[in-house]
Amino acid sequence: xxxxxxxxSLRRFLKTLGVNAQREIETAVRSAAADRRLPDKPLQxxxxxxxxxxxxxxxxxxxxxxx
Length: 67
Description:
Helix content: 40-55%
Strand content: 25-35%
Radius of gyration: 16 Å
Shape: elongated
Order of helices and strands: HEE
Mean pLDDT: 97
Distance between the termini: 46 Å
Number of domains: 1
């Protein structure tokens, strides 16, 4: 295993994930606000990453403030 290749590949994956996830979440929150479906409280979010080939599962819970 080449640690440098693994590190670069992971960083690329996480950057892509972060940029795309942020864009999708912002779109969904704006849509909910426009439709008056956005609750007047923090949003509970869960992110999940799986790598089936190595039986890896990671889950992260967070709170997203929208107001």
